[in-house]
C-alpha cells in the first residue's frame, strides 16, 4: 500500500523549483513585479487602482487611489453619505451599467433587487438545510451551482441572459450566506434556527441584519457601516485573484453559475477573502499576551515577536498590513475607519477602547515592518485590518466574515464577466516554461 506521507515528500522533491530559475528566465512570481505591480493581462473600464495619484509623470499624492467607473471612491462615498442614503444599490448600478443612476433609475433598481431576493420553492429546505457545513463559502458555491439546475437558460451566455442571472445572484447572495449559517448553527451547534424573509423594500445591508438577528432590529449606524463595508469590498480591479478567476473561467465560454462558483473558491482562500478572520484572531492573541494594551512598548514587543515567528500562528505576518498595490495608504481603509469609529462610539466604551487598540497597531506595525524587513514600497493597513472588527461589533459570526466579502464582490465579478464576454473572444491561456531535464523511458522491469 502506498504511504501517502512518503509520496507527499516525493511530490515536494520532484515539484520543487529553485527561486533562481524565476530570476534567470524573468518569470514574475504571482504575476507581479517585486514592487507588487501586476503583469498587464487585459483592459477594463470598471475600476482603476493606483498606488499613488499621478498627473502625467508627476506625483500629486503618495497616497493610493481607487476609482469606480472613473469616479474617485471618496467622491462616490461622500455623495450618498451626505444625503444619509445607503450606497450598495447605487454603486452596484454604476459598476454594472457604467453611469450613476437617476433618481427614478435608482428607485427601479432597488425595487428590482428587492423583488429578486427570493429562492426557488423548497430550496432552503432541500439544498441549504440538507447538508450544512461550517464553511459557508463552500455552501454558497454548492448553492450557486444548484441554482443553475433550476434555470432553463443556464448555458445561454448572451449578455441579456447573463445580466439577468447576475442580478438574481446579487439579490440572493445575502440569503444564501445567512441561511447557510443558520442551518449550520442549528444542525451542527444545536442553537435555535430562524429563517427571516426580508422586506423587499430594505437595502442589502438592512436585509442582511434583518435575516441575521432574532429580533430583526438594527440601528442606522449599524446599517450604514455594513453598507460601507459592502461598497468598499465591491470591486477592486480585474487583477485580484477572484476577479481574474472570473475573467479566466468566463473566457472558456462556460455558464454564469460555474464561473461564480469558481470565483467563490478563489475568494475563500486565506490569502484573499479570508484575511479579515486572521486579523481578528491575531488581535485576540495580542490581548491575551499583552498585559497592558495601553503600553505601546508591550504592543511593539508583541508585533516584533510575530515578525520573528515567535507569536500568534508563527508565520511571520502581521495580518491586515500591506497590499499588493497600495503603498502609503489603502483608500478603502482610510474611508472605512471613519465609520468604524462611529460604530464603536455607538457601541460604547469597550468597543471604543478596542478601536483605539487597532489604531495603535495600525500606526506601529508599518514602522516595525519597515525597520525589520526589506520592503520595496510603503506598508500601511488595508481594509481587511478593520473589517473583521466591524463584523464583530455587528455580532456577525466569524463563519460569515468571508461570505460578506462575497456578497459585495459578486457585483464586481458580474461586471467583469459581462465586460469579458463583450470584448474578448479568446480563451485566456498564459504560458509556463518547462525547466525539467529530458529523460528516456525505462522499461518497467528495469526501474
From TrEMBL:
Coiled-coil regions listed in the entry: none
Pathway entry: Carbohydrate metabolism; tricarboxylic acid cycle
Reactions listed under catalytic activity: oxaloacetate + acetyl-CoA + H2O = citrate + CoA + H(+)
Pfam families (UniProt xref): Citrate_synt (PF00285)
CDD domains: citrate_synt_like_1_2
Signal peptide as annotated in the record: none
InterPro entries with a match to the protein in the record: Citrate_synth-like_lrg_a-sub, Citrate_synth-like_sm_a-sub, Citrate_synthase, Citrate_synthase_bac-typ, Citrate_synthase_sf
Annotated keywords: Transferase
Domain of life: Bacteria
Family (UniProt): Belongs to the citrate synthase family.
Protein name, entry field: Citrate synthase
Organism: Enterococcus hulanensis
